[in-house]
Structures are given as C-alpha cells and as structure tokens.
Amino acid sequence: MGSECPRDAGIAPARILTKTNVGVIGTGLIADFAHLPAYREAGATVVAVADVVESRATRMAKKYEVAHVYTDYRRLLEREDIEAVSVCVPNYLHAPIVLDALAAGKHVLVEKPMAMNLAEAKAMEAAAERAGRILMVGFNSRFRPDVVKLRRLIEAGKFGDLYFAEIGYIRRRGYPSGWFTVKAESGGGPVVDIGIHALDFTRYLAGSPLPVSVVASTQTKFGACAVEDGTWESSDVREGLRDGKIFDVEDFATAWIRFDTGLAMTLTTAWTANVARDRVYSNLLGSLAGASIDSYHSIHKRGRGGSDAEQIDVFTEEAGMVCDIAVPYRSIATHNAEIRHFLRVIEGAEAPVMSARDGVVMQAILDAIYQSADQQREVAVSI
Ligand SMILES: NC(=O)c1ccc[n+]([C@@H]2O[C@H](COP(=O)([O-])OP(=O)(O)OC[C@H]3O[C@@H](n4cnc5c(N)ncnc54)[C@H](O)[C@@H]3O)[C@@H](O)[C@H]2O)c1
C-alpha cells in the first residue's frame, strides 16, 4: 500500500494550478506565443501587461483577459498584487527593466539572452541576490523532452566522461527583423538569438561546466537580402511601425569553446545559410557512449522544441558489440514547461533547473565569441 513505483519518476511535469499573480512586460511575439498562454494554462492570473505600444498591449490584454494595461512598465511594478514578472522586451532593455523589477521585489523570468554584456548580467545576478528574489533566464530548450531524457541518461553515468560536443542551430532562411538585426538593440545576430539555445542546453547536458577559452569567427553574407525572410520579425516591423533595413549583426558564426572539465565544443549557427533544412543538433561524445539530438525542424514546428524524428540516437557498446539505441520522445511546448517550472520554483515546490548564474555564464561565452571574432584570436573567458 502506498508504495511508489520508480517507473513513475516524472519526465513530463503534472499539470498544476498556481495562485501566483504575474505581470508581463513587453507584449510582442514571444509574450503572445509563449508567456501569456503559458501563464493562463498554469492557472496563474496575469494581473497586468505593459508595452510602449498601447494598441498592442490592449489587444493582448483582451485576448488573454488581462484587467490592467500600462504603457509605462514602472506603473505595473508598483502594483503590490503582482509577485512575479516576465520581461519580454528587446535585449537592450533587459538589464534596466529587470533591475527595476527586482528593486520592486518581483521574481523575474527574463527572456534570453540575459543582457547585452557580462557586466550587465553580473549586475542583474547581484541585484537578485540582494533582493532575495528568483531571477531566471528563458532557456526553454532545457525543457525539450529529448534534452530531459538525455540528461537522465548522462546523470545515470551511461556516457562516462563527456569530452566533445558538436552543436548547431541553423536556419536555411529565417532572419528576424527590426531590433533583432540592430547590434545596439540586440547585442548580436544568430549567436545571441538561436545559437544560445544549443549552447545552453548542451552545457546543461554536460553538467554545467565553466568556459575557459573561445575561438570564433562571425560573418555577414546575406544581411537583409536573403529571400524568404522574416519568420520571427519583430512586432514593430510586422505592424508597419518601423522598417527592417538596418542589419549590422552577423548572420553566421562558428565557435570553438574549451570548458574546465576538458569538454571541447564546436558551435555553428546561422539565420541564413545554403543548407538543406533548418537544424538544431547536439552530437555528444563520451568515453562510454555517444548521443545525437538532431532536430530537423519543418518550418511549422519551429519554436516547439521538438523534431520530426522524435528520437535520440545513442551509440554505445553492449555485450561486446557496438550498439545503436533509439530513445523515443514526444515533443512538447517547451515554453509552457519553463513557465510552469518558474511558478513552481516561486512557490517552493521545485528546485530551479536554471539560475541567474547560468545566464551570466552564457553571457560570458557570448561576449567571448564576439571578442574573439573581432580580434581574430583565441580569448580567455573570465567570469
Ligand atoms: N525563448 C525563445 O524561444 C524566444 C523566441 C523569440 C524571442 N525571444 C526573446 O524575447 C524577447 C522579445 O522578443 P520578441 O520576439 O517578442 O520581440 P517583439 O519586438 O515582437 O516584442 C517586444 C515588445 O517589447 C515592447 N517594448 C519595447 N520597449 C518597451 C518598454 N520600454 N516597456 C515595455 N515594452 C516595451 C515592444 O513594443 C514589443 O511589443 C527578446 O529578448 C528575444 O530574444 C525568445
């Protein structure tokens, strides 16, 4: 009676209902695609939204039945009935808005990348510690079911010593527009936009090692001239409030990263590249086994964190033979899982699977990639 079956150890978190009241700052694409519906699904009450474009905020408030709309996010932060906020604004606004939110005593989920540079990220981490509030960065790929399952296998010791990772996040055609392609507003191109996901989930799989040095190269070969663009165009471009003409970031990058565990990682990322199809991949080599996560995204699956194949391939030896093992999984909406987790952490019901420190470490890698590409040499990473 009452005995627990170890087979029930959950992969997919159970549906929970939360009492947490939240606010959403920035009501553009990711708020509409992920945060607002995910809070609703988790049972949280979105008390207020804020956006400088009032018509957009009002439209989103109506769509998601949110009672209060502000054009100045500071008015939202003054509300004592809001315990936590999502920060879903362009990257250059992450640091100032997160610092204000923490000073107002809110828990914060800030979209990736954490900030524009390492100094900003460290200031945000320190502010969260001072305020005694949770600060998480939107690394939703950690909730991909293939990542969750592979991590369980790695933690169970099935891979031995992980010493190499070949990773990538590549789109054949798919550069976003508006602020995304303006360095002063985004901080960079596909490295900070999509490459960051492959970097973060692979580092997580590898047990969160620290970066030691980076060699990188960035290129801009297409800019805003590629055909079939604009899948992730910013809300302002979509609504005709600005054009997408400025493009002063990279559209391709490759990097070689050395970690303190001895792990070597190669990253390739692109918004535009003459390849067969969009791909998110992480090929890991360990002393006992290797694994391949390789998502061949059709355009319609983009952002859902799954693949058409829905299978992790593991390469190992069993009973004196080389063996291939296929681990099946079902794709899920990773943002929903991330936001449910954020709420559960606030409520003390789950230990965080990511911290402000993970955002800081990632920011150090991003900074080093651009520094190495600029200086055309290997650079040491210090955090
Ligand atoms: N995790 C993911 O998969 C994922 C996917 C897409 C975007 N993102 C991240 O989400 C963030 C937002 O991206 P997006 O695609 O939604 O961009 P977007 O341009 O569609 O939306 C940004 C919104 O912020 C609003 N805004 C700007 N300044 C503001 C201010 N001072 N106060 C309040 N609102 C303000 C804009 O008016 C706009 O509505 C970025 O950091 C991006 O990197 C993450």
Corresponding CATH architecture of the largest domain: 2-Layer Sandwich
- CATH H-level superfamily of the largest domain: Dihydrodipicolinate Reductase, domain 2
Overall 3D form:
globular
CATH topology of the largest domain: Dihydrodipicolinate Reductase, domain 2
Small ligands present: nicotinamide-adenine-dinucleotide
Q: How does the helix and strand content classify structurally? A: alpha/beta
Radius of gyration: 21 Å
Mean pLDDT: 91
User: How many separate helices?
Assistant: 11
Reading the helices and strands in chain order gives: EHEHEHEHEHEHEHHEHEEEEEEHHE
Largest sheet: 9 strands, mixed
Task: Calculate the terminal CA-CA distance, rounded to whole Å.
Answer: 51 Å
Provide a compact summary of the structure:
This protein has 383 residues and is α/β, with parallel strands linked by helices. Helices cover 32% and strands 24% of the residues.
Chain-wise SSE layout:
Layout (H helix, E strand, L loop, with lengths): L20 E5 L3 H14 L2 E6 L3 H10 L4 E3 L2 H5 L6 E4 L6 H10 L3 E4 L7 H14 L3 E3 L7 H11 L6 E9 L12 H4 L3 H16 L5 E9 L15 H4 L13 E8 L4 E7 L8 E8 L2 E7 L15 E8 L2 E8 L5 H13 L9 H20 L3 E2 L3
Parallel strand pairs: 1-2, 1-4, 2-3, 4-5, 5-6, 7-10
Antiparallel strand pairs: 7-11, 8-9, 8-15, 9-10, 11-12, 12-13, 13-14
Helix pairs in contact: 1-10, 4-5, 5-11, 6-8, 8-11
The structure holds nicotinamide-adenine-dinucleotide (NAD).
Nicotinamide-adenine-dinucleotide (NAD) binds next to helix 1 and helix 9.
Structure description:
- The chain has 383 residues and is of the alpha/beta class.
- It has two domains: 8-140, Rossmann fold, CATH 3.40.50.720; 145-380, Dihydrodipicolinate Reductase, domain 2, CATH 3.30.360.10.
- It has helices at 29-42, 54-63, 73-77, 94-103, 118-131, 145-155, 183-186, 190-205, 235-238, 334-346, 356-375; strands at residues 21-25, 45-50, 68-70, 84-87, 107-110, 135-137, 162-170, 211-219, 252-259, 264-270, 279-286, 289-295, 311-318, 321-328, 379-380.
- A nine-stranded mixed sheet has the order 14-13-12-11-7-10-9-8-15. A six-stranded parallel sheet has the order 3-2-1-4-5-6, with helices on both faces.
- Helix 5 links the parallel strand 5 and strand 6 (135-137).
- The longest helix is centred in the last third of the chain and has 20 residues, at 356-375.
- The radius of gyration is 21 Å and the shape is globular.
- The termini are far apart.
- The relative contact order is 0.17.
- Residues 6-15 and 298-306 have low confidence and may be disordered.
- Nicotinamide-adenine-dinucleotide is lined by residues 25-31, 50-53, 56, 73, 88-91, 93, 111-112, 138, 140, 178, 234-236, 303.
